[in-house]
Amino acid sequence: MTSAISKFSILIFVALLSGTVTAQDFQGKAYYFSKTTMDMSRWGRGRQMTEAQKKQMADRMKQWLEKTYILTFNQEESMFKEDEKLAAPVGGRGQSVWGSSFSAGPQYKNIKTKTFIQDQEFFGKQFLIKEEMQPLQWKMGSETKQIGQYTCFKATASRPASEVNWARIERRRNRNNSNAKKKNDSLKAVNVADGTAVEKPVKEEVKMVEIVAWYSPQIPVSQGPGEYWGLPGLILEVSAGNVTMLCSKIIINPQEKAKIEAPEKGKVVTKKEYNTIITGKMQELRDNRGRSSGRRRNF
User: Fold this and answer.
1) pLDDT (tens digit, 9 = 90+) per residue, 83-117?
2) Which of 105, 188, 199, 286 lies at 20 to 30 Å from 294 by C-alpha?
3) Torsion angle of the four alpha carbons 264, 266, 268, 270, in this order, in degrees rounded to the nearest 10
4) Can you spell out the DSSP letters for 238-253?
5) Sheet with 115-122, edge to edge strand ranges
6) d(CA 87, CA 197)
7) In the 8-state DSSP scheme, what is residue 143?
């Protein structure tokens, strides 16, 4: 088995380094299964839910918590998007709104120009989330494991959490009557040179997310699913927070090659700006819950 893997690895390296195979000629497809775990107790009434009710809700949300994605890549560019063939059928108005608005859209990466673009729809509005790709400070390990026919090495990193805090949005409605107290709790007395005291806001602690990735040098491209990249081999498995993505199938140089193109249509925003838009919209929806006139926020 080891001998066969070594021969396969050598063949890939030779093909990639050959003068007849350029970055544009080489292409691969990797299929990933993504699973997200969710703590129901953090969601509003979740603390009052029975175990049976939590299981029932988890079953209903399964189509959003378990997905299959395809990463199409070459040596410089990649496109990561949900496998449309395996996407759960949409049924009912509620599922349509939530499914299209909160599922991650196609993500384009160019490791040469350090460009990340996500094509995202949110409640009928098209956005282009654009960011300059910041390399993670990977810590390379010597631990290995086998994923399919590929020998993978472990690498770890950490980054600030950038996702929207849905639980915080859900709880905000119940804190409206205690805003003054919360404001006072966020202030701290500080002694100054003249002996007086002033109040200074306490900075909110930045939450960090720990990342564990497994990459294979047998596929020598610095690509990976989603926002992950920067290792000396394709990332076949990655875990960050409550999300795990695992590669289930790889096709090198498929007969029908797909175009990898950066999306261009939509309002250009940063990730921070987009998260602010989502937070505002979610707050509006909760404020309007139960009202007959559900006005929408203008973007």
Assistant:
1) 977 665 544 444 444 455 567 789 999 999 999 99
2) 105
3) -100
4) EEETTEEEEEEEEEES
5) 139-147, 150-160, 208-216, 234-240, 243-252, 28-36, 66-73, 77-82, 107-110, 115-122, 125-132, 267-269
6) 59
7) E
Q: What distances in angstroms separate CA 26 from CA 13, 16, 72, 252, one per listed residue? A: 11, 7, 11, 8
Nearest CA-CA partner of 218 in 197, 233, 239, 199: 233
Asked if 267 contacts 299 with a C-beta cutoff of 8 angstroms, the reply is yes
Instruction: Determine the Cα–Cα distance for residues 286 and 291; give it in Å rounded to an integer.
Output: 10
Which parts of 148-296 are beta strand (E)?
Answer: 150-160, 187-191, 197-201, 208-216, 234-240, 243-252, 267-269
The pair of structure tokens assigned to 165 is 């805090």
**Residues 33, 178: Cα–Cα separation, whole Å:** 43
Residue where the block lists tokens 């202030």: 187
- DSSP structural state of residue 134: P
Contact 130, 107 (CB under 8 A): no
Element (H, E) at 10: helix 2-17
- The answer, yes or no, to whether residue 38 has pLDDT greater than 50, is yes
C-alpha closest to that of 16 among 256, 213, 230, 223: 223
Reference 140, options 218, 230, 77; nearest CA is: 230
Cα separation of 50 and 279, whole Å?
A: 28
How far apart are the C-alpha atoms of 34 and 54, rounded to whole Å? Answer: 21
pLDDT tens digits, residue range 61-86?
667 788 999 999 999 999 999 997 76
